[in-house]
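Progress note, sequence design subtask.
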């Protein structure tokens, strides 16, 4: 059940030294292509990275950096053509979470690495750095990177009794 997947999906930052099978990568990428987008513009594109040297370079994309990305067998860089849609951020975010949920369903762990509005150095944004490393044209913005692999850490699922029910409102906002 999808609700069980939502409860069990946690951010994984430690990965086993095991390749993600091509069939699983294909399913993850197809799930991104199935994600909804405003007016079906689909401004997003996805770069699957399995090359160890590129993963190492991407792990240095920002400060503080996602160093664990160097040990992930797969990263998916989520980019979008910002000129084609005023809600490219939302569309790219929806596709990203679709990939994370499918990864969880496939027995994989994942972690969102925020890129947009983050710095690589004081002189260069994380986006500029990634664009250079992966040769991404200027018309595309980088929203995030999803690190994916077989978990080398175990995290307990969320418990329903620990959910922040006080953040739920019906009909009107109530304090």
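Output:
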């Amino acid at each position: 059940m999808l609700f069980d997947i939502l409860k069990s999906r946690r951010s994984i930052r430690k990965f086993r030294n095991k390749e993600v099978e091509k069939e699983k990568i294909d399913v993850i990428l197809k799930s991104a292509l199935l994600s909804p987008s405003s007016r079906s513009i689909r401004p997003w594109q996805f770069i699957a990275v399995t090359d160890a040297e590129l993963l190492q370079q991407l792990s240095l994309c920002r400060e503080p950096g996602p160093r664990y990305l160097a040990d992930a067998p797969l990263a998916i860089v989520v980019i979008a053509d910002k000129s084609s849609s005023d809600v490219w951020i939302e569309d790219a975010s929806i596709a990203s979470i679709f990939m994370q949920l499918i990864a969880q369903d496939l027995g994989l762990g994942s972690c969102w690495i925020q890129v947009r509005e983050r710095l690589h150095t004081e002189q260069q944004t994380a986006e500029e750095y990634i664009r250079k490393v992966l040769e991404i044209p200027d018309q595309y913005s980088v929203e995030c990177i999803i690190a994916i692999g077989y978990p080398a850490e175990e995290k307990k699922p969320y418990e329903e009794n620990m959910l922040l029910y006080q953040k739920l409102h019906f009909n009107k906002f109530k304090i």
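The longest strand covers residues 140-149. Work on this subtask will continue into the next period as scheduled.
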